[in-house]
Structure formats: C-alpha cells, structure tokens
Amino acid sequence: MAVEKAGEKYRCNVCGNEVIVTKVGGGELVCCEQPMEKIGG
Q: What pTM did the predictor assign?
C-alpha cells in the first residue's frame, strides 16, 4: 500500500515497529521484508 498523506500510521505485524508519516514520497513502507499495515491517519 502506497503512502498517501502525512499523519498516516503504519505497523509491522512481525516485530511491532510503528511509524507515522511526516513527509509523503509515494513509496511503500516495508519492515521485516513485509509490507507495513496502515493502522490510522
């Protein structure tokens, strides 16, 4: 899932890392070789 806007929150379902987008670049967030899940924003 591509990042769409600042403030979106993503979580890694493998290790539990969470990130909040501060600048949109249009890429996909990946952690532990898995796409991160959008959880808010």
A: 0.86
Are the CB atoms for 24 and 5 separated by under 8 Å?
Answer: yes
Residue 23 lies in a domain: yes
- Structural tokens at position 1: 């899932």
Q: What tens digit of pLDDT does each residue of 1-41 get? A: 799 999 999 999 999 999 999 999 989 999 999 999 999 87
Q: Give the DSSP letter string of 1-41.
A: -B--STT-EEE-TTT--EEE-SS--S-B-EETTEEPEEEE-
Write out the residue range of the structural domain in which residue 23 sits. Answer: 9-40
- Whether 1 is covered by a domain: the verdict is no
